[in-house]
Amino acid sequence: MIMSKIKTLCLSVVFAAGCVSTAEVSTRAKNPASSNVAAPAELSWQELSLPIDINFEFDEKSQVLLDANSTGPVASFIIPVDKTPIDMVLTSHVDNELTLYIPNILITNAKGEELYHIKSNEFRYIPARLLDGDQVQTQLTVAPQVGTRQVNILIYTTIEDLKGSTTIIHPAKALAIGKGNQPPSIPDLTATHSKYGQLSLTVSSANQLPIRPTLDYMPASDTKHTDYLNSIQYSVEQGDMDHAITLLNEAEKLGIPNARATFINAVQIQNEHKSAEE
Q1: Cα angle value 6/231/171 (rounded, 5°)
Q2: Which domain of life, per UniProt (predicted)?
Q3: Could you say which of 24, 87, 161, 189 has the lowest number of CB atoms within 10 Å?
């Protein structure tokens, strides 16, 4: 009975989390007649303000850059900077049809001079877990040059990227691993690389709180361990499941032990309390 209630609560958390508002940004050209261009300068560049937490999609209506690097739909953003470094996380999500847009990132200054160039092979695969599906992701810190007031972010894919594929852990294996069990001996899946896909971008400066879970994998201190576990339990007790799940994700990425067990136990206790009240 308790397990049934936990499943019900977790499902309600999934649906609630799905309603969290994240800005949707279009990748379409301002002028549809010039949606296919041959140089970055001809793209429609969107100005964004920090902090940034956006989703965007590449489809048949997206602007297309065809040059020595890019071979399909692209996203082009202008981000204001000052003397403070900015942290950026770009994620590309595997869709239900097992296709995936493999991105590259070119960061330039206002003059178009290259500052950073992150290739597709620098993205790492992250298996599905909790509320997040399979994805590839990279994180970087951009330290602006002296006198720089903006950086240009170009996200694109290449001919070579489209020829490849990404191995996806079979859901049954992922479930077993998540439970600490021996994974079954079954083949993994393959995500075909596509020029279309769903992506998300998070950017924040050093003087702003992170707006998505940090990807820092350095071991956390014992004090931080306790703080996270207590915060997870308190959030569940207060019924703030979105915050509890965010803390759980952060804790697991920081390598804090017992985070998932703390979350599950807190949910179970809450369900027992509700059952006793009925």
Answers
A1: 45
A2: Bacteria
A3: 24
